[in-house]
Design brief:
The chain has helices at 17-20, 29-34, 43-48, 52-70. By secondary structure, the chain is mainly α. It is elongated.
């Protein structure tokens, strides 16, 4: 087996082994299984919003405007 690659099973020095010992397997499995609601923004849109809070604030405002517009009998299908 001349092509066999030797595996170095040593932990790299930049990793603190004491932080790795108490991990919990599957800690976020239930949340992951429930799904996510990530949305990929186009670069021009993403550039307009510096944080996720800014995106949420604007979207809540748009929802409010649309909701309030329904009371004015505005046609939202256009």
């Amino acid at each position: 087996m001349a092509n066999k690659t030797e595996i170095n099973d040593e932990l790299r020095p930049e990793y603190d082994e004491t932080l790795l010992k108490n991990g919990v397997r599957g800690k976020y499995a239930e949340q992951y299984a429930a799904g996510t609601n990530l949305v990929l923004l186009e670069s021009d849109v993403a550039a307009a919003f510096p944080t996720e809070e800014a995106v949420n604030e604007v979207l809540r405002y748009v929802l409010k405007v649309v909701k309030d517009g329904k009371h004015l009998n505005i046609n939202h299908d256009q």
